[in-house]
Amino acid sequence: MIQNAVASTSLDDGHGFAVFLLAYLSVVRGDVKGISLHVGGFYRILRHCNVLREDGSPNSDHTSLAMISWRIGVRTDNIIGVVGQRASFPATTVPDSFHANWLRDFDNPERPNTAEWAMAQFALDDLANRAIHLAVRSITSQRKIEQGDSEGIEELNVELDMAFLIRDLEAWKRRRILREAESRERARRVAHPSQPRLKFLDYEPLTFADETYAIMLVQYFSCRIQLSLVMNPQIGPYPSERHMFAIELCRVYAAIGGLKKPGLSGLLVGLVYAGLVLTDKTCPLGIVLHLQRLIIRVRLDSGTASGYR
Predict the structure, then answer these.
(1) pLDDT tens string 149-163
(2) With a threshold of 0.85, does the pTM exceed it?
């Protein structure tokens, strides 16, 4: 039915949701090729239905449901970046003011500052999407240099855009909603110290009352590791900043207690990036073995052990 609708150019929002569900099923199954195929189709449907403009930015005259489907599409697109796939959604930067209007329909009285949390997540997803595009540009530039087809100008442009992206990631961490969440977590740990079910090796254990904030931190560290690998495409714990990001990622993941259900949180992607940093040859603490245990815990908690490859 979807193929017939494409052939007759009679696509609508329902077809878009159907294609997204196919993409989500591919995520749960660990089917990277399927994710790439269906997310690409989902993006083209959003373009056909004028939810998105040619440059990937959103039109303002669509329903809140269409907007949230676009945001979930970007999140899904980011998952395939870990294997070097080209992202389907163009890199865009959308101001918080645009989201403020349509997010009112999703306000949750049980979650204070619902809109601010959503906007922080959207901004982080956009930054991660920019990182994927930057990684692909870097690989393309390096190949051209190796073949003698480039003067290195694009490589300099990639380095400059990398600096801008790192700057924007650090600005993201300074958002009010995130600073307040970090302050609450620190105050709670002091007032009510407790031991988490899991900790990462011999590093100081963490606890989180706000799981949403903790998951965002994992996504942030994942993005920083990815950018470090673009700048210095050698696996291992160097430079030292990359090593720190991987350690913090694993501490936060252990504090969460494992991935409780499969989906689009990006936690498993974070473990992959951490594994590229904390290799068995360069880390004498046997960190890779511990990562394997954490991944086993992911499978057990999610109930889809056979689905992850």
Answers:
(1) 767 788 889 999 999
(2) yes
CB atoms within 10 A of CB 143: 11
User: Residue for token digits 């996504």?
Assistant: 219
Closest CA to 32 of 71, 82, 68: 82
Please check whether residue 112 is in contact with residue 184, taking contact to mean a CB–CB distance below 8 angstroms: no
State the average pLDDT over residues 64-92. Answer: 87
Which residues lie across from 58 on neighbouring strands? 52
Helices 211-231, 267-277: crossing angle, 10 deg rounding: 40
Q: Which two tokens stand for residue 115?
A: 């809109």
How far apart, in Å, are the Cα atoms of 17 and each of 11, 45, 262? 11, 10, 19
Write down the residue that tokens 């979650």 correspond to.
Answer: 111
For residue 86, report the phi and psi dihedrals to the nearest 5 degrees.
Answer: -75, 130
What tens digit of pLDDT does each residue of 25-37 get? 998 888 888 999 9
Nearest CA to 273 out of 238, 309, 224, 232 is that of 224
Tokens of 308: 């992850």
